[in-house]
Design brief:
Order of helices and strands: EHEHEHEHEHEEEEHHHEE
Strand content: 15-25%
Strand order of the largest sheet: 2-1-3-4-5
Number of helices: 8
Distance between the termini: 22 Å
Structural class: alpha/beta
CATH topology of the largest domain: Rossmann fold
Number of domains: 2
CATH architecture of the largest domain: 3-Layer(aba) Sandwich
Radius of gyration: 20 Å
Length: about 220
């Protein structure tokens, strides 16, 4: 999903962004109510995550004005104010759900997925493209330009995750969790081996490399 996060706390905003990006979502972040309202009106977000207490315009007024101007994107409020009256105020202002701080990453992800299903506006992605590299998720095929590329199942899964996060730095931890289903570091070179094999297949015979190593951080797939 394409998600807009409106949160003035830099640490909280960064946490929410990391959690959502690791789930494969595209995330934009702004830090005040006026900018948030302007962004919400101009972008086609599948979901807004709005802090209730914002500078320049509070979250309640932001969502209320967004609804009055015809905005239809679902809105999830984040707030340290969690009693019944505060939650009701958020829903009456046009919010679709209300999550009280602090919260677990798994709960945030579950709420986001539930609102995504409720919205029903997300079109399933069947083809991923980065530059001249194309992956068909239904046919399970990969090609660069006119040349077909044969990948092993793990290589396909690795490339899919990189393409879904194209332009973003993907860390080793993200790859271990999302591609290998490890929630610990096995202290092996499994990632390096597969990245090397993948690079040999999608970059070696072509003029412009797509798979880049970001020293000390991870990898980035970018045209």
């Amino acid at each position: 999903m394409n998600i807009l996060v409106i949160e003035d706390d830099q640490e909280m905003a960064g946490f929410v962004e990391r959690v959502l990006r690791e789930e494969g979502h595209s995330v934009s972040v702004v830090h005040d109510g006026d900018s948030g309202l302007s962004m919400a009106r101009s972008m086609d977000a599948d979901l807004m995550i709005v802090d209730r207490m914002l500078p320049r315009k509070n979250g309640l007024d932001l969502v209320r004005e967004y609804r009055e101007s015809g905005g239809a994107s679902p809105a999830l409020f984040l707030s340290a104010l969690g009693d019944v009256d505060h939650r009701v105020e958020g829903l009456k202002a046009g919010g679709d759900d209300y999550l009280t701080k602090p919260f677990a990453p798994s709960e945030l992800v579950a709420r986001v997925e539930a609102l995504g299903r409720r919205g029903g506006s997300e079109t399933p992605i069947t083809v991923l493209k980065v530059g001249d590299l194309e992956m068909n998720l239904l046919a399970r095929t990969v090609k660069r330009g006119a040349e077909s590329i044969d990948l092993q199942p793990r290589e396909f899964r690795l490339l899919e995750f990189l393409m879904r996060n194209a332009g973003q730095v993907v860390t080793r931890t993200m790859l271990l969790e999302k591609v290998w289903d490890y929630h610990f570091d096995p202290q092996t070179n499994v990632i390096d081996v597969h990245i090397s094999r993948l690079r040999g297949k999608i970059d070696k015979e072509f003029d412009r490399p797509l798979l880049h190593t970001v020293r000390g951080a991870g990898y980035r797939l970018q045209a």
